[in-house]
């Protein structure tokens, strides 16, 4: 079946429901962008230290909580887990407007909700990866990942402005309530998938309840680090993402402080380039069809790290703003190409019975690395200056393509039986 501009093969109708569910939750997340820091500042009147701790501690503790959930997800029906995580996130977020209406909202509650949502996000993502592998044929996986990637970037572009308007009209907790409703819509979309998902075998469920659980906690990392193709991809992606995110606060301080950019200019500099992610995601399937998965992975993975070093040279005025936008547009376009190809490749190299644990380990490692390097680069900026710290991160990024696998993976690396594809009924 023709896939149009997304590729030669359609991922199928059941994937359409999964895509709709992810689109609903992505839009809700975009609407609620920076909602918790805004509530902490404008409603609770907290300072920079409290706001920073809200973001850092919530993500870090949530990632730690998610570690034992990886094995739990692996041995259960993935769609049921996804619906459960949507309902957990909805309930946690709805507690915020209720507490606000009663005049009882506090920083501790925001922190607890952040932890719950972060853990549920990781767990949902692990289950969604396993569900996607079961729903979509391998030849359509890049197209499916490209649609999900384009949805993420679209929500990033349109969500925050709409969220700002919603806050202006209805108050500071409106976007939190909208985000909660988006998870209900996501759960409804997942429930609408018609294909039957078989229950994991008795042996797997028994192992999950017995002494094998301790070993299951590290199975994801064990699998990744022992795999000749996944190990370099793991090191590359975790390091690249952490280095990029570590400089984001430094660039914000540089632009809003010494360079004198206004908040709306700063927002514009990062919102408009997100269109590059949409463009890159739409190009990815066609590039894979023409040049092959491995070549696109190598080229886009190498090109995406060439740009951030340019942010160390930003200057005041229109020229500086255009430089940031150009660098970010080039970076995000390359990311838009790389991410769906990488995500499809990672699923292809991971056996069905290990997907949830592998994705959980990958996500937890990424969040831990980002938190660590963000803190380290904050200290470094205090020692050598903002520009030098940003330049050093950019220089280190230039070396990361050496971690990419140089050889293409064998064709059949995941033949271990697992969930039957529900699209093949």
Can you offer a commentary on this structure?
This protein has helices at residues 13-31, 35-42, 48-66, 69-74, 78-101, 107-135, 141-170, 174-191, 202-209, 212-217, 219-226, 230-246, 248-256, 263-271, 275-291, 293-303, 317-348, 355-384, 386-397. Helix content is 73%, strand content 0%. It is mainly α and 425 residues long.
Q: In summary, what is this structure?
A:
This protein is mainly α and 425 residues long. The protein has helices at 13-31, 35-42, 48-66, 69-74, 78-101, 107-135, 141-170, 174-191, 202-209, 212-217, 219-226, 230-246, 248-256, 263-271, 275-291, 293-303, 317-348, 355-384, 386-397. The longest helix has 32 residues, at 317-348.
List the keywords.
single chain, 425 residues, mainly alpha, 0% strand, disordered C terminus
Structural class: mainly alpha
Tell the overall outline.
Answer: globular
Q: What order do the SSEs take from the amino end to the carboxyl end, as H and E?
A: HHHHHHHHHHHHHHHHHHH
**So how many helices?**
19
Low-confidence stretches: 202-212, 412-425
Topology:
Elements: H1 13-31, H2 35-42, H3 48-66, H4 69-74, H5 78-101, H6 107-135, H7 141-170, H8 174-191, H9 202-209, H10 212-217, H11 219-226, H12 230-246, H13 248-256, H14 263-271, H15 275-291, H16 293-303, H17 317-348, H18 355-384, H19 386-397
